[in-house]
Amino acid sequence: MLENAWIIPLVPAASFFLILLFGKRLPRKGSELGIAAVAIAFVLALVVNVQWFDRVENPPDAGHGHGTEHVVEPVEKAWTWFQSGDVDIEVGMLLDGPAVMMLFVVTLVSLLVHVYSTDYVAGDRRYTHFFAFLSLFTASTLGLVMAKTTLQLIVCWELVGVCSFSLIGHWWEEKANSDAALKAFITNRVGDVGLLVGMIVLFWTAGGTFDIVEINTLALDGGISKTALTVASCALIAAVMSKSGQFILHTWLPDAMAGPTPVSALIHAATMVVAGIYMVGRLYGVFFEGLSIGTSTINLLAVVGGVTVIGGAGLAFVQSDIKKVLAYSTVSQLGYMVMALGVGA
């Protein structure tokens, strides 16, 4: 299953199209398709986890690390997506420890949200539409988790943004909801400019490659100039600030609580808001060298995280709405994660 883990995001993606096409004709208006797809994805993710742990315990032909430690090679697969001049643009799968863990977390939380939503939005006029976008959201997040190239990561990142816009504004008849959806969408676009700039800088300075492993290797081995790495990591921090609700661009997250409760659970607990932090972990070589995390006393990533921890927790104290308290506490916890990455933990 490790070799074929790329099937996991395709299952909810297929369910998105099936729900849109046939959902309204089904007895439960398409929710059964969504739940079945995510349940299958969850079972497959469990199998992947078991097989990955087996691989860690008994590495196939791993090179030996320091002492008795084994270096477990990630499982990679790639296909040519399209060609641009001499460059082959690939789409593929990069499966390693963090990806395996996130596959389990995302599918589990999404499954629980799907089951809870059947009752929460029962009788809603856009019931089928709601489940279709839950499926697409899950597929996009799983695709982002296993992305092999930075281009693939950008595509899944934007799909997650589109789905969050649709889900937060599910009850768009009420002004608060449509305002919250627009605010989330526009704030995220601000950070996405940073994402695009950072990825473009990395593409050209890494010799025209989108491959995440290759970019990290080049960054750590001095194959990319220090200036380029610093510019790229500062640009990418803007993307982290918007998607993961860090200080200055965190304002959309508490407002997004206006959407249906299952959406708040999916977006704010497990999946969308962690995407930015996951991206830092994925391209950690770039941040580590670009911001001199190993040698400097202070850096931008740690500052952004530190300010968010205190600011988010402070704002949570003065909220009267329980969902807003949860939202600001989420902002604060995300700040902890960013700060930990910023100090090299």
Q: Can you give a write-up of this model?
A:
This protein is mainly alpha-helical. Helix content is 67%, strand content 6%. It contains 14 helices and two strands, in the order H-H-E-E-H-H-H-H-H-H-H-H-H-H-H-H. Strands 1-2 form a two-stranded antiparallel ribbon. A hairpin with a 2-residue loop joins strand 1 and strand 2. Helix 2 packs antiparallel against helix 3, helix 5 runs antiparallel to helix 6 and helix 8 crosses helix 12.
Outline:
The protein is mainly alpha-helical.
Computed Rg = 20 Å
* Helix vs. strand class: mainly alpha
**Shape type:** globular
Whole-Å distance between the termini? 31 Å
Q: How many beta-strand elements?
A: 2
> β content, as a range?
5-15%
Helix content: 55-70%
What is the strand arrangement across the widest sheet?
A: 1-2
Contiguous helical run count = 14
Low-confidence stretches: none
The largest pleated sheet is described as: 2 strands, antiparallel
Task: Give the rounded overall mean pLDDT.
Answer: 86
Order of helices and strands: HHEEHHHHHHHHHHHH
Keywords, separated by commas or semicolons:
two-stranded antiparallel ribbon, 67% helix, mainly alpha, 14 helices, 345 residues, single chain
